[in-house]
Design goal:
The complex is a heterodimer of chains A (242) and B (309). Chain A is 79% helix and 0% strand. Chain A has 12 helices and no strands. Chain A has helices at residues 2-14, 17-36, 44-77, 79-84, 90-104, 106-118, 126-138, 141-153, 156-174, 185-191, 195-207, 214-237. Chain A starts with a helix and ends in a 5-residue tail after the last helix. With 309 residues, chain B is α/β, with parallel strands linked by helices. Chain B folds into 2 domains: 2-227, P-loop containing nucleotide triphosphate hydrolases (Rossmann fold, 3-Layer(aba) Sandwich), CATH 3.40.50; 233-291, Alpha-Beta Plaits, CATH 3.30.70. Chain B is 34% helix and 27% strand. Chain B contains 11 helices and 13 strands. Chain B has helices at 2-9, 50-57, 75-80, 99-111, 122-128, 144-156, 174-188, 201-207, 225-230, 271-280, 294-306, and strands at 10-21, 24-35, 39-43, 65-70, 84-87, 162-166, 193-197, 210-215, 218-223, 235-240, 254-260, 263-268, 288-291. The chains are: A mainly alpha (242), B alpha/beta (309). Chain A binds chain B through residues 1, 4-5, 7-8, 11-13, 15-16, 74, 77-79, 81-82, 84-89, 239-242, and chain B through 51-52, 54-55, 58-61, 79-82, 84, 86, 88-97, 101-102, 105-106, 108-110, 112-113, 154, 158, 166.
Chain lengths: 242, 309
Amino acid sequence: MIVDYVRLEMVRLLRDPGYLVLSLVSPLTMYLVFTSLDLTGRPGPQGAAYSMVGMAGFGAVGAVMGNGVSIAEDKRLGWIRQLRLLPLRPFEAVAGRTLCAMAVTVPPIVSVCLAGALVNGVSLSVGQWASVLVLLWVGIAPMAVLGIGLGYLLTGQQAQMAGLVCYMGLSLLGGLWAPITRFPGWLERVATATPLNRYGELSWRVIGGDAPAPAGCLILVGWAVLFAVFAAYAYRRSARTV
Amino acid sequence: MEVKATQTATAVDITGVTRSYGTVRAVDRLDLRLGRGTSVALLGPNGAGKSTTLSMMLGLIPPDSGTVTVLGASPERAVRDGRVGAMPQSGGLIGGVTVRRLLGFVRASYAARARGRTVPPLDELMRTAHVTDLAGRRADRLSGGQAQRVRFAIAMAGAPDLLVLDEPTAGLDIEARRELWAGVRSYAAQGRTVLFSTHYLEEADDYADRIVVIDRGRVIADGTSEDIKRRIPERTVGFDLDRPIAAVDGLPGVIGSEVRGTRVHLHTTDSDATVLALARAGLVRNLEVTGAGLEEAFLALTGSRGGTR
């Protein structure tokens, strides 16, 4: 049933390519500008690789937050309520929507990585490339679930505001734009506890030749659980009238 | 054995249910039991608690207290098992997909939970709901009547045991209304339970076996259309005048009158006494006594208190 639901939502998504294009263009542009102006805080290929992960992740966050806004819009349309009146389990509805959100992260992740390889000469082994792509994609799941929770709980406008705060705020704080080592010490410590820092860290470590850190994975899983509880609560609160 | 028979004979059982929004008590210790295979109309002025009651019955909101049982299970369970079909007042039709794709998805969601029940094929569903001609249309680009037909098709997609319709004909023209009710009627004829709320009293009169009037979150009248009308003591006595008379208002029981040409209509709270008095006066040409209509009954039941809000 999840498959049917994902297929339906994907058809809707593909009918509105503007959203897909937008989620791809802004991280790609920012990546190229950042690296050509040398704003990444690290020189040369190292900076290009760091920023590639950062901007691909930034694009992915933007995509999943946009999905939250579209859920809030669906609520206004009565679609979320309609789904609750069908024999579709809440888990299927939320998981299906999460998969759709994650599907939308593929274009920004792939395009920024391509730009890294082709334009900025980021050179990684095949294994590293595969790991980075998979980790950038899988690791966004907690944020996708957060976006879904915001969509179920808030109105379209509120979801847009909240999404923007998470998109910009958490990306900046997480070091997707510039390394957190440039932050003051106390802020750096705060930053290491945030989901997007640990998300980026998965791939940064792979680029540096390390495996993802267990502590980082654990923090990310913790956020995932917290956001899932929030999304379940938000789902129950949605669609309160016939 | 007997217990089981009673359980299966009940489609919806609402017992002592209360639901408030802030300080407003939308539903107040409501008791309501719907037998299987009946068509029931839920009537009430705006804000009477109709939609809240339906929402609780569909598992969209939990009651503050009391219990709601649908087809022997919790409302959520009954909906998850695909045994309930619902047509909300509005919404639910998304952009970017055709009517056929949307209905195909809805039907598949029911088919996945069918467990031995038969879910009709998509083409048959579209035929019975009269939406075959809309199959290729975008679901968000339909007229009011077309959209309502599609919503009705969504509600019927799983051939559910219980069909809940919240003001299904609001905003529809007469033709569209008639078509929709034809669909509801043929559905009910299969022995399924239909519960609908409506603003149109004649719809309740025509299509429900039973009418439940609620006001301020409580049931204030419950029975057949005839039962409800009988609760209003008021009758109309009509007769033809063959000569002018001075006053009819002094007759016993009469609370109002109207004269159209030679025809007089008296509104009376005691039709027996009024008729006897008319007989004594020799005014019995084409004498006719009629009961109050459902509309009068409804207004009398809810209207007197409605003004204070």
